[in-house]
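User: My collaborator sent over this chain with a note saying "see what the structure looks like." That's all I know about it. Can you take a look?
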Amino acid sequence: MNETDERKNCRLKEIRKINGQIEVVTGLRIGANVEQMEISGLDNPILRNPSNKEPYIPGSSLKGKMRHLAEWYHSELPLPSGDLVNNCMTNGKVARVFGIAAGEKAIGPTRTIVRDATLSKGDRERFKQGEPITEVKTENSINRLTAMANPRPMERVLPGVRFDFEILYRIFDTDDGGKADEENFEEVLLTAMALLEQDYLGSCGSRGCGQIRFIAKDGDSYKPGILVNGIFRELPPIKVANPTTEQIA
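Assistant: Without extra context I'll predict from the sequence alone. Here is the result:
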């Protein structure tokens, strides 16, 4: 089947809703642009909703980081030409799930829609009451020759703060009964979410920022995991080969 045929025979079969909360484990920093510096009075403020000043996580940040991790995990990395390795622009799992830029090539509509993640109800109330949900962390860049310190304050969301998130996953029947998208739901999207828990979101991840975890309500309590169409489930384990003693040596 060529690309034109796939678009012609592409039929929406199902929309799956993934939701829950993103819990900040270590200070989360998603930086704002320079135009917002005057709002917080900081050189490095976090991104906030301009209408109510609440921190939020852009869907673009969440989706972009998951795609980045999935491309490395599945060896489907972009090339300088703009294509993906192993002809993944047309048959790759990651491109199919997260979409590609508009152009001549097509693999159908993007399967994944990621909403902006907003403060949870409890943390929104805390914020309205004036309780701190952010901090200003100061780091020092030290000149190795003169030992002169150059302090740089940056704003972060405090550990323990939670954001409500929602992801929609669309399953299309491209004359396969939706089989490919069904498989990619687990192998690509949910695996990317599990990879994100082992990595970081936002900036300064190598310096302690950005560790998060996905949690969802199971019964009367929140547990590590997500809701898929209202049903609780855990994220899949990450399958990464452990090096042997000889390889480490």
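A starting point for your reply to your collaborator: The longest strand covers residues 11-24.
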